[in-house]
Amino acid sequence: xxxxxxxxxxxxxxxxxxxxxxxxxxxxxxxxxxxxxxxxxxxxxxxxxxxxxxxxxxx
Length: 59
Fold this sequence. Notes:
59 residues, 86% helix
């Protein structure tokens, strides 16, 4: 998912270089949304992983 955010960031930078303001802002917004979704999923998975570690292996 982080690769999609990087992809849209690159699309935004290339579009901005060529002067396509609408496409650039849309791609940058998409990249920003994907980055924050990735960050939230990472935090949730980190908490779940820490909770499972404390509980120990199943008997």
